[in-house]
Design brief:
- By secondary structure, this protein is mainly beta.
- It has 2 domains: about 160 residues, no CATH class; about 55 residues, no CATH class.
- The strands form 2 sheets. Strands 3-4-2-1-7-8-9-6-5 form a 9-stranded mixed sheet.
- The chain is elongated and about 85 Å long.
């Protein structure tokens, strides 16, 4: 599905990056800011204007979705607030980034449609703080660098780390989930793949009493279609 950006048809293109962070799990706090020179309000949400103090990493542009990381940096933080940032439950918090196109009043263009497009969504994986001494203002300037991982990578890890059994699947997706109900039965069944089927089934080697017999399983036949 393509997205039409009417603002790109203008002879004078103004744009800004907008960030929303939801920090905390028990009592989440939402922070909104952008790299515009002044605050910008979008759909009732005011994004604080940070100008060049807000840095956003490169967003990869591909036809298909990719698992990319993102770096967001905030410069000019009061050193007194550094401890507050480090003590907050910030890892795992959600991050969303939009690009908005501005009119001559530095507000989002709304005609014919709102020119405000999401570019990235992920979670915070790491936070680092650096401090530099500024001779002009005779003060330490702190920079907060936030590392983010895309939601696609989170979902890939989420699925890859799942065990394929009934208990785990129903704990994750609810008791109505039945796709793994037969895993226990299949995992304890012996299949002698590649051996010609004989009789009504294939016996597992070494039965319960140590003999050659054992629990038989249904015969599985395959039709040879090679060369046909």
């Amino acid at each position: 599905m393509s997205t039409t950006m009417n603002a790109l048809n203008s002879a004078n293109i103004r744009h800004a990056e907008f960030v929303r962070m939801v920090v905390g799990k028990t009592s989440p706090t939402t922070y909104t800011f952008c790299n515009a020179a002044a605050p910008v309000t979008v759909s009732g949400i005011t994004f604080s204007g940070m100008g060049s103090l807000l840095g956003i990493g490169q967003v990869e542009r591909n036809i298909k979705s990719t698992s990319t990381d993102m770096m967001v940096s905030l410069t000019g933080i009061n050193p007194a607030n550094v401890a507050l940032i480090l003590s907050a439950d910030i890892k795992g918090s959600t991050v969303e980034i939009w690009r908005g196109f501005l009119d001559s009043d530095n507000q989002i263009i709304t005609t014919p449609t709102q020119q405000f497009f999401k570019r990235y969504q992920g979670i915070i994986t790491n936070v680092s703080i650096t401090e530099d001494w500024n001779d002009e203002v005779r003060s330490r300037i702190a920079t907060c660098s936030i590392s983010c991982t895309s939601m696609k990578r989170v979902l890939e890890t989420y699925v890859a780390s799942s065990k394929t059994n009934k208990a785990i699947w129903q704990d994750r997706y609810g008791t109505s989930e039945t796709s793994m109900d037969r895993v226990d039965a299949i995992s304890s069944t012996y299949f002698d793949f590649g051996k010609p089927a004989s009789g009504g089934g294939v016996a597992s080697p070494g039965g319960i009493n140590g003999g050659n017999g054992g629990t038989t399983v249904p015969r599985i036949e395959y039709e040879d279609t090679i060369g046909q």
